[in-house]
Amino acid sequence: MEWFKLLNWDTIMHWLNAFVTWLSPLLASAGVPEEYRSIVAFGFLYLGATVVVLLFVFILLKIFGVGRKPPKDDVVVEADVAEVSAEAVESTEVIETQPEAEIAPTRESEPTPEPTLGLFERFKAGLSKTQSTLVGRVDSLLRGRTAIDADLIEELEEILITADLGMQTTQQLIDSLESSRTKGELASSEQVRQLLMEELTKILSFDSKPLDVTSASPFVIMVIGVNGVGKTTTIGKLANQFALQGKKVILGAGDTFRAAAAEQLQVWGERADVEVISHTEGADPSAVAFDAAKAAVARKADILLLDTAGRLHTKVNLMAELKKMRRVLDREIPGAPHEVLLVLDATTGQNALTQAKLFNEAVDLDGIVLTKLDGTAKGGIVVAIAAELQVPVRFVGIGEQLDDLRPFDAEMFVSVLFDR
Ligand SMILES: Nc1nc2c(ncn2[C@@H]2O[C@H](COP(=O)(O)OP(=O)(O)OP(=O)(O)O)[C@@H](O)[C@H]2O)c(=O)[nH]1
Ligand SMILES: [Mg+2]
Q1: Structure pTM?
Q2: Tens digits of per-residue pLDDT, 107-135?
Q3: 186 C-alpha to ligand 2 centroid (Å)
Q4: Distance, CA 229 to ligand 2 centroid (Å)?
Q5: 393-397 and 405-407: which strand pairing?
Q6: Given this structure, which CATH class describes domain 219-418?
Q7: CA-76 nearest atom, ligand 1
Q8: How far apart are the C-alpha atoms of 216 and 372, rounded to whole Å?
Q9: 301 HSE (CA, 13 A, CB side)
Q10: CA pseudo-torsion sign 361, 363, 365, 366
């Protein structure tokens, strides 16, 4: 500690004088008058000391991580998903409720993309619950069975019904199995599996008009469905996909039921970098449809995606409101909407089928989007909806990530389900 003893006033003054003497020639060459040189030298010394102290503090903060925000849990604030039931659809006709608190998904809440899985694997992961409820149970039934008899077919029937395939589809499948069995064509459990795969693919691949967004410009897609099923999320995902394909997309915030609905769409619009046409909360949804159609034409957009409410403030019939929006769109863009997409929540099982029937009767659907297949064992409902309505399932939602909306492909769906 010898050096510390040297640290008295005289030594400090000596060092300061030495510093001023050392700096003087420099200051002189810079044109600083002699009487100011000491003061300028002290100024430099002061500045230097401040920088050193700040650097020291900065290094300390870095080392000890002071001020670093604690890692946040991935907070995904979900819409207050109302219980969706057949009654709920009917009651959309006269509902007055407080706007539910819904916070639009933010970039922070976006789940971190998992390592890129192939399309098939990602689909398989999304459908895993349905796979174990349907095919998993079929496989356990078939395991070790050598004879394919009437009892086995009866047990299969029960599995198919409880896997939400619906009565009509189950009957169709059972009839086909029974007829093959009586003809002696079902000798092994593998043949049962094979026949089920073929029949399911056949049921799902009926003739329907394909979704061709290039068939009109702007191509107008009106997205409908009861509240909480995933309409706005689906629009966001679609907007992103179309924008990535280089299409000019415009979004219409036709859900004026809550201010948060337009805000939520705005967030999706920003993510996909597309324009959103919106009005204030409580505005006439048809007025939004009108403005959005006008904007889509004026901006020469390729696609207009129109969001709608799942329920209304006023005692207006939801179906009547949707029909009015249709008329307004058609007046502005003849032939529009070119696609009326009904969004259904797969986790609601048979309720989804009931909703689909009601909406189809009222609004004439062109296609269906079945969301939340990832969170449910009731994915068999895809088959029931396609078979009973003969309305094509266009997309399925298998998660909350941007690319978790997949075009529905009957063959792939069946192969994923039956993949071992
Ligand atoms: N797991 C999963 N969640 C989904 C999927 N699609 C939508 N969701 C979630 O479902 C919730 C409701 O989605 P929204 O898009 O707000 O539903 P909405 O139909 O617009 O609801 P309203 O505006 O209230 O009528 C959100 O938390 C979404 O993240 C999906 O395919 N899988
Ligand atoms: Mg919405």
Answers
A1: 0.72
A2: 333 444 444 457 788 888 888 999 988 89
A3: 48
A4: 8
A5: antiparallel
A6: alpha beta
A7: 27
A8: 30
A9: 27
A10: positive
